[in-house]
């Protein structure tokens, strides 16, 4: 990883799930963090998330905007 630290990674695949699910568990001397993100597949392409398509559209719109504030 970029931090140069060892990490344990587990990948699970469940064909019965109807959403994209990403879960992140982080443990360290600082404490613990848990993040879960779920989103729906694209209606036009179930192999990708609907959020990914919306993100691309947002980026294309921002490319035409002369002023950027924040991220």
Can you give a write-up of this model?
This protein is an alpha+beta fold and 71 residues long. It has one domain (1-65). Helix content is 20%, strand content 25%. It has one helix at 50-63, and strands at residues 20-28, 31-39. A two-stranded antiparallel sheet has the order 1-2. Strand 1 (20-28) and strand 2 form a beta hairpin. The radius of gyration is 17 Å and the shape is flat. The relative contact order is 0.12.
In short:
By secondary structure, the protein is α+β, with helices and mostly antiparallel strands.
SSE blueprint:
Blueprint lengths: L19 E9 L2 E9 L10 H14 L8
Antiparallel strand pairs: 1-2
Instruction: Flag low-confidence runs.
Output: none
Secondary-structure-based class equals alpha+beta
The overall strand count is 2
Strand line-up of the largest beta sheet: 1-2
Work out the strand percent: 25-35%
Mean pLDDT: 82
SSE pattern, N- to C-terminal: EEH
**Biggest β-sheet: count, sense, barrel?**
2 strands, antiparallel
What is the helix content?
10-25%
Number of domains: 1
Q: Rg from C-alpha positions?
A: 17 Å
Q: How many helical elements?
A: 1
Using brief descriptors, characterize the structure shown.
single chain, 71 residues, alpha+beta, flat
């Amino acid at each position: 990883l970029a931090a140069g630290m060892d990490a344990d990674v587990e990948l699970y695949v469940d064909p019965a799930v109807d959403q994209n699910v990403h879960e992140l568990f982080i443990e360290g001397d600082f404490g613990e963090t848990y993040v879960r993100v779920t989103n729906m597949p694209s209606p036009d392409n179930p192999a990708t998330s609907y959020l990914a398509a919306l993100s691309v559209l947002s980026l294309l719109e921002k490319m035409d905007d002369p002023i950027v504030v924040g991220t």
